[in-house]
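User: I've been trying to design a sequence by hand for this structure and keep getting stuck. Would you show me what you'd pick, starting by listing the structure so we're on the same page?

Assistant: Good idea, let's start from the same input. This is the structure you sent:
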């Protein structure tokens, strides 16, 4: 049965790969990213009923407007995937500029809360739907020079497990560690070493069925795609 799947951060990396993967399997994707140029290209590649919009998830007013537009045209999503995130350039915490730290927190934590605030009430009303908040290995462990990113992903673990206790039966909120994948973001953290990790094209073959198989019984359980 075809599902309606909402994904943030679809312009590249895991977000783009999932968008393509779900559409290839016959599902409808509603997606957003900050880059209007990238959104235009994605629109050219994937036609209706898929729907893509340039939205900065850190901007609460833009997210509210986007949610109103989407929920007027479509039923509440079957699956919401909060994927949009950035990482910091590796440095000791005291050397990371305040603005860089704030941008990361605004996107990685507040962006997730904005999406939940404006899309999840419609799902709660129907008592159905899965919310997948992308965490990280660095949401359950730590390394030097990525303190802001670790802080944000540990926050996502806590936020999601708390949200899970607030949802009605039939729904689930899941903190999901996607694993270590060779993306542009990993290259920022790992440099040339990033190329030694799983290519996105291999990862998505596991990720798409994994996410489609999530059930309400998975509510609040920290999961990992292996």
């Amino acid at each position: 049965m075809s599902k309606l799947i909402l994904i943030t951060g679809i312009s590249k990396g895991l977000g783009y790969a999932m968008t393509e993967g779900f559409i290839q399997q016959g599902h409808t994707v509603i997606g957003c990213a900050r880059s209007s140029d990238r959104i235009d290209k994605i629109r050219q590649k994937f036609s209706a009923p898929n729907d893509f919009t340039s939205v900065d998830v850190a901007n609460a007013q833009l997210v509210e407007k986007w949610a109103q537009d989407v929920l007027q045209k479509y039923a509440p999503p079957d699956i919401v995937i909060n994927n949009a995130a950035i990482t910091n350039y590796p440095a000791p915490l005291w050397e990371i500029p305040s603005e860089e730290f704030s941008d990361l927190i605004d996107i990685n934590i507040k962006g997730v809360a904005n999406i939940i605030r404006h899309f999840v009430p419609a799902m709660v009303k129907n008592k159905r739907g899965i919310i997948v908040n992308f965490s990280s290995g660095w949401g359950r462990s730590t390394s030097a020079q990525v303190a802001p990113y670790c802080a944000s992903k540990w926050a996502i673990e806590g936020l999601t497990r708390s949200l899970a206790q607030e949802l009605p039966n039939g729904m689930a909120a899941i903190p999901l560690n996607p694993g270590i994948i060779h993306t542009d973001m990993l290259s920022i953290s790992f440099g040339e070493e990033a190329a030694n990790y799983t290519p996105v094209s291999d990862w998505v073959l596991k990720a798409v069925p994994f996410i489609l198989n999530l059930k309400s019984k998975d509510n609040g359980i920290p999961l990992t795609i292996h």
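That's my pick for every position. To get oriented when you compare it with your attempt: The CA atoms of residues 124 and 167 lie 7 Å apart. The beta strands are 4-8, 28-33, 51-54, 79-82, 129-134, 171-177, 181-182, 198-199, 223-224.
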